[in-house]
Amino acid sequence: MRGWRIGRIMGIDIAVDLGWFVIVLLMVYTLGFREFPRELNPDALRPRADLTSLALGVAASLLLFASVLAHELSHSWMAQQRGIGVKRITLFIFGGVAQIASEPDRPLSEFLIAIMGPLMSVALAAVLGALWLWLRIVNATGILGVSLTPLILLTNILFQVNGSLALFNLAPGFPLDGGRVFRALLWGITRDIRRATRWATRAGKLLALILIGAGGWLFWTEMNGNGIWYTLIGVFLWNAASEGYRQTVLLETLRGVSVGQLMTRGVETAPPDISIAEFVDRHLLPRRDLSFVVTDGSAFLGLIGMQQLKRVPRAQWTSRRVRDVMTPSARLQPLNPNDTAANALTRLANADAAELPVVAAGQVIGFLGQSELARYLKLKGE
Ligand SMILES: [Zn+2]
């Protein structure tokens, strides 16, 4: 998922995508111009937006997303505790998603990571609900001499938001948090992640159908705009469930085979001190390889291929050398022949690379990329 980086917390990039801006603007409008003016002036026939209602609208929208962020950060914190890195958290139109570096390999990890988000939301809802009650009591006594209504409205909406976040995410359909908890339990009992995922995915699809059906019904019978929203979330959930299942089956298939078994053996080399033009003519054009190992005869210096060449303007092909353009070996995260192919897939995705070198005893012995994995999966499928 793409998006703009807005900050970094606990070593995790926080990003927002375009849909997030749309939803924040929509919320500021709905709350600041519609909801809050009405609730701040219950007696007025035509309540108007003022500075208070607008400030409240902005505060509520931002705190709402802070709530989503807190939920995702709790998942991420637990993932880090269980030794799984978190790349980034993206806030988007339906909430937030924490991108963890790999799927949990044990039911307990999956359970703990999945349950943390809803726990955080429940805790926030409890605190905000208590605060809301307390503010109402204080307001009713009138001892402060000022109206606490704005704060009451703010705590009320945040209480509701965190409560719904917890409730919705706890629904037992994969890949929602509740579905992941459900899968972790089935996985723990049956010791069969594929079967556990199949059942949790069915629950997720059932939930999606209910949302789509309820949304359609609301919209057609009552012309209720929320209906569209339910339907959209239902469709999103259906797709996520299918994708999640496919992903699990894929990883399971790749877990049973090693990098060494799938890699393309043998490497083409290129010397570090020839020009790019020379490299293209003598090495790149005559061969089919994607990447070449740059070596001075003994040491592995780096990699060069189409990916690196894209960054060099054609006019500089004669003046720049292979050494200047290659990705240095220190910046590469090579694969080990004993790694599982599932591991390699995750690493490829995280490195955003077409292929990665396989290194044993300091020497590149082959390459493994998406094409090798795809070939194996095709064979397996047949
Ligand atoms: Zn969650």
What does this structure look like?
With 382 residues, the protein is of the alpha+beta class. It has three domains: 1-170, no CATH class; 178-255; 259-381, CBS-domain (Roll). 60% of the residues lie in helices and 14% in strands. It contains 13 helices and eleven strands. The chain has helices at 18-40, 51-81, 107-141, 149-170, 177-190, 193-222, 226-255, 259-262, 276-284, 306-309, 322-325, 341-351, 370-381; strands spanning 4-9, 12-16, 86-92, 95-100, 264-265, 269-270, 291-295, 300-305, 327-328, 355-360, 363-369. It has a four-stranded mixed β-sheet with strand order 1-2-3-4. A hairpin with a 2-residue loop joins strand 1 (4-9) and strand 2. Helix 1 crosses helix 2 (51-81) and helix 5 (177-190) packs antiparallel against helix 6. The longest helix is centred in the N-terminal third of the chain and has 35 residues, at 107-141. The mean pLDDT is 85. The structure holds zinc ion. Zinc ion (ZN) binds next to helix 2. The site of zinc ion has 5 residues, from helix 2.
The largest pleated sheet is described as: 4 strands, mixed
Integer count of domains:
3
Contiguous uncertain segments of 5+ residues: none
How far is it from the N-terminal to the C-terminal residue, by CA? 31 Å
Strand order of the largest sheet: 1-2-3-4
Helix and strand element order: EEHHEEHHHHHHEEHEEHHEHEEH
* Helix percent band: 55-70%
DSSP, total strands? 11
Q: What small molecules accompany the polymer chains?
A: zinc ion
